[in-house]
Design brief:
With 92 residues, this protein is an alpha+beta fold. The chain is built from 3 helices and 5 strands, in the order H-E-H-E-H-E-E-E. The N and C termini lie far apart (59 Å).
Length: 92
């Protein structure tokens, strides 16, 4: 087996944290997902939208933070990453 083939057989475990409306739509505060490596935020979103279809309605407004840093959807995820989904919050 070549190294690129072996790479596809590994997995990445990430913890997803949901805030505000994302928490409501997902029905949970957090969950762990195991995804095939390599993976990125965009692939994570695909998995999350399948598991929690209501999230699709707010996907475009969510801020995505990986280990506390705001990232784009093409950022590669690593084993042990913490991904936070944060919708805009109005206050007063």
């Amino acid at each position: 087996m070549t190294e690129p083939e072996a790479q596809f057989l590994t997995s990445v475990k990430v913890k997803v944290l949901y805030f505000a409306q994302a928490r409501e739509f997902a029905g949970t505060r957090e969950e762990e997902l195991v995804l095939l490596h390599p993976t990125d935020v965009n692939r994570l979103f695909s998995e999350l939208m399948n598991a929690h279809p209501k999230l699709a309605s707010i996907k475009g407004i969510l801020s995505v933070l990986v280990n506390g840093l705001r990232v784009s959807e093409d950022v590669e995820l690593k084993d042990g990453d913490r991904v936070a989904l944060v919708p805009p919050v109005a206050g007063g």
